[in-house]
């Protein structure tokens, strides 16, 4: 016994190293297979407050550009409003509305990593939950991953675990949008069957097949595509509408029917 | 003497974390280069101190940066591994000299110091990006990131280490 203790004591640094390595690996590998850790992310209190301050400072520097973006969005929405022949005076009841929008500000952004996350200044206290969609005035941004009381982290589309249901505007065939980790202005769209007519500068939008994103939110344009010989699906390069290195004002979208959809799907799978 | 050493290292710890998460994580050079200079903590950390404390401190340094940048424990693992193998690297660069009482970087040649920093940065970046991507099918991306990010980090580290070098 004495010998074992002496042995351990004489190699305590190695054992300490292995122990810490094990802890670190657990945290890392676990997050690779499923989700980011619930506790160690930038939505927690200390780093949340820190980024809230730095994000607040950063927001001043691009006020002008952000204002222009928001004004442009207002213009577009007003045009849409004008095309509705008459505004219906009948208000939809609260619980009949499918999608609700919550506005938020990005406090921390990252684009260089292989798995990028953003932190926003709204959290559980504002009704934000895991797996809600996040968009900017220009297009899709990501999905809520973790929330704390006042902050939330967003899994960006620039994340190798991100997979978003998408269609080419004007068609019904949907594919999945992923990122290969190379270029932060481009994402890839897979699984679009080859019978779909496609050309460069086609617009890519979200499809209605997910319970997270509402249909028809713009994503980007096709800049390149190829059809590998051995498969019957396209590989499409998509240029994002968003400048991912410069996002500030975002909307979080809550789907009020999501729970119902998920329950139904779970029941169906149980039967099988 | 001991107290001043501890307070210097705590200050260094905090300044390096701030520099990393506030400035360097937002550099985004060419869209994918974010230099990492906190390896300088391991370069400056005093030689003959308790190694267990050193390993724990490095783990803490990495982990704090991890929490801020949503990278799980990748910074922590690579930083701690570097702390663990630092005696090996020191022996490689300076021979057995570094174990003597009066050893300090001012008595060493510039070439030795540069070699030491190069080793620290390259090994750190290699572990970091391998863990970040964690897949051998992306070997080329890993190499590309290691190569370019190491270049910029090295440049910054050499610059800062010579700026704050103690006058002999």
Automatic annotation (TrEMBL), chain A:
Keywords: Cell shape, Coiled coil. It comes from the Bacteria. Residues 60-90 form a coiled coil. One of its GO terms (biological process) is regulation of cell shape. It holds the Pfam family MreC. Transmembrane segments: none annotated. Signal peptide: none annotated. GO terms for cellular component: plasma membrane. Residues 108-253 form the Rod shape-determining protein MreC beta-barrel core domain. InterPro entries: Cell/Rod_1, Cell/Rod_MreC_2, MreC, MreC_beta-barrel_core. Belongs to the MreC family. NCBIfam families: PRK13922.9-3. This is Cell shape-determining protein MreC. It comes from Aureicoccus marinus. The lineage of its organism: Bacteria, Pseudomonadati, Bacteroidota, Flavobacteriia, Flavobacteriales.
UniProtKB/TrEMBL annotation, chain B:
The chain crosses the membrane at residues 29-46, 53-85, 114-134, 146-165. Keywords: Membrane, Transmembrane, Transmembrane helix. This is Rod shape-determining protein MreD.
């Amino acid at each position: 016994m004495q010998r074992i203790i002496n042995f351990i004591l004489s190699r305590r640094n190695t054992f300490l190293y292995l122990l810490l390595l094990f802890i670190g690996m657990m945290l890392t590998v676990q997050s690779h297979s499923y989700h980011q850790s619930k506790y160690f992310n930038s939505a927690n209190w200390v780093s949340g407050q820190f980024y809230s301050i730095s994000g607040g400072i950063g927001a001043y520097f691009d006020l002008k550009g952000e204002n222009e973006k928001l004004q442009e969005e207002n213009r577009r929405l007003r045009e849409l409003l004008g095309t509705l022949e008459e505004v219906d005076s009948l208000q939809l009841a609260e619980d009949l509305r499918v999608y609700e929008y919550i506005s938020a500000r990005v406090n921390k952004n990252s684009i260089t990593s292989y798995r990028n996350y953003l932190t926003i200044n709204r959290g559980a206290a504002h009704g934000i939950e895991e797996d809600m969609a996040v968009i900017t005035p220009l297009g899709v941004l990501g999905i809520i991953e973790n929330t704390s009381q006042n902050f939330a982290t967003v899994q960006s589309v620039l994340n190798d675990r991100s997979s978003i249901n998408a269609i080419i505007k004007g068609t019904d065939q949907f594919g999945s949008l992923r990122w290969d980790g190379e270029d932060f202005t481009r994402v890839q769209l897979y699984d679009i069957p080859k019978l779909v007519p496609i050309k460069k500068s086609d617009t890519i939008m979200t499809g209605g097949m997910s319970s997270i994103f509402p249909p028809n939110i713009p994503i980007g344009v096709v800049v390149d595509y190829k059809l590998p010989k051995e498969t019957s699906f396209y590989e499409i390069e998509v240029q994002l509408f968003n400048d991912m290195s410069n996002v500030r004002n975002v909307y979080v979208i809550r789907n009020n029917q999501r729970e119902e959809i998920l329950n139904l799907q779970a029941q169906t799978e149980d039967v099988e | 003497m001991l107290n001043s050493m501890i307070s210097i290292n705590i200050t260094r710890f905090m300044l390096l974390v701030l520099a990393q998460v506030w400035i360097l994580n937002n550099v985004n050079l060419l869209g994918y280069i974010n230099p990492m200079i906190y390896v300088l903590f391991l370069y400056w950390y005093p030689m003959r101190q308790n190694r267990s404390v050193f390993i724990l401190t490095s783990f803490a340094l990495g982990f704090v940066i991890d929490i801020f940048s949503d990278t799980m424990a990748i910074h922590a693992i690579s930083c701690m591994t570097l702390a663990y193998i630092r005696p090996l690297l020191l022996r490689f660069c300076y021979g057995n000299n570094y174990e003597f009482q009066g050893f300090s970087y001012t008595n060493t040649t510039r070439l030795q110091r540069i070699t030491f920093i190069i080793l620290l940065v390259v090994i750190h970046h290699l572990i970091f990006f391998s863990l970040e991507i964690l897949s051998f099918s992306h070997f080329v991306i890993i190499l590309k990131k290691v190569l370019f990010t190491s270049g910029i980090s090295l440049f910054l580290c050499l610059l800062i280490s010579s700026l704050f070098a103690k006058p002999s």
